[in-house]
Amino acid sequence: MSFSIKQSALATCMDLSNSIVNRRSQSTMYRSSFSPALVLQRTHLSVSKPLHISSIEIIGKEKRPVIPCKAYEADKSQPLEAAAEVKPETAKRVKIGIYFATWWALNVVFNIYNKKVLNAYPYPWLTSTLSLACGSLMMLISWATRIAEAPKTDFEFWKTLFPVAVAHTIGHVAATVSMSKVAVSFTHIIKSGEPAFSVLVSRLLLGETFPPAVYLSLVPIIGGCALAAVTELNFNMTGFMGAMISNLAFVFRNIFSKKGMKGKSVSGMNYYACLSMLSLLILTPFAIAVEGPQLWAAGWEKALSEIGPQFVWWVAAQSIFYHLYNQVSYMSLDQISPLTFSIGNTMKRISVIVSSIIIFHTPVQPINALGAAIAILGTFLYSQAKA
């Protein structure tokens, strides 16, 4: 049933019962054509938009209060309560969008400084260790100064975090080793194949099934990465394998992280801080065994003599930005699924690839660029198939 009412504010309808009880004897009343009676008080209503009755309860005897009706505008498609629910969802999407944009920007800066450091100081195991150490120190200071609230953890938390830390450590070192051997653009082209690893692991370990479109989208991803690898001018097997191992390790990290974060009171920011500290403990003895302090000291003196004091800033910048971009990515992981995280992680590589080619003047053959474009297109199709 519908009728038109001039209304100064929609809240007048909600206050209808109180108005009728208080001023029943003083105002002129109008009775509608249906039963039970719906009484409208002229002094509180003025012409506005047509309203529809959404729900109404029976008005009892004269002494009982009139139950307020719920109404919505006739030219709207949903009640006001439903419309209000749209706002939190929109705010959440905007928040995730800001996280993604910040994550990608910080990642570009990290990759630039990381490659500069590795060109002058080819010790990826130490470079990886310094990145984790810097992030751990930053978070310890934040907790001590109460800039960030320290997490409340127990033995079960650290037990669940351990496999995540192992995967994170492997993925971090493997990616750094890869970038020490090949161009940044090549490493990230190969790492664009992460969705393929994500689908494979999710299917085999989690038992998840995907529509045919998802599997078909993996064809251009894998084909594009293969084409880019075959035509890469600076191809190096160690660099290639490092990127592939990093792909697999980070997929495991994302899946284990999402599982570990479920039901925990630890936020994404603090979760990654704890992850960095545990990964640092795991990585340090291996870094010492593989490279060692003697090589580090000799390499440091050589880098300082060739680059100058700004080399120290390069090392500090790559360590700081590594922690920041990962911290923001984990804040994103708080809100999304591991597969969506992998999609965002892949799409960010477009900006990394383009910026690294421009800054480092990386030679790119047309066929190599075609392979990268096909892989990125496959990633886009994958995201559409998952939507």
Explain what the structure shows:
The chain is mainly alpha-helical and 387 residues long. It is built from 14 helices and five strands. The protein has a three-stranded antiparallel beta sheet, with no helix packed on it. A two-stranded antiparallel sheet has the order 2-3. β2 and β3 form a beta hairpin. α3 packs antiparallel against α12. It is globular, with a radius of gyration of 30 Å. The two termini are 39 Å apart. 38% of the residues are buried.
Helix and strand arrangement:
Blueprint: E1 2-4, H1 11-14, H2 16-23, E2 29-31, E3 39-41, E4 50-55, E5 70-73, H3 80-120, H4 124-144, H5 155-181, H6 184-191, H7 194-205, H8 212-230, H9 237-261, H10 268-290, H11 293-307, H12 310-333, H13 338-360, H14 366-386
Antiparallel strand pairs: 1-4, 2-3, 4-5
Helix pairs in contact: 3-12, 3-13, 4-5, 4-10, 4-12, 5-9, 5-10, 6-8, 6-9, 6-13, 7-9, 7-13, 8-14, 10-12, 13-14
Q: What coarse outline follows from CA principal-axis ratios?
A: globular
Using only C-alpha atoms, the radius of gyration works out to 30 Å
| Helix-and-strand structural type | mainly alpha
| Cα distance spanning the termini | 39 Å
Spans of at least 5 consecutive residues with low confidence: 1-14, 23-46, 71-76
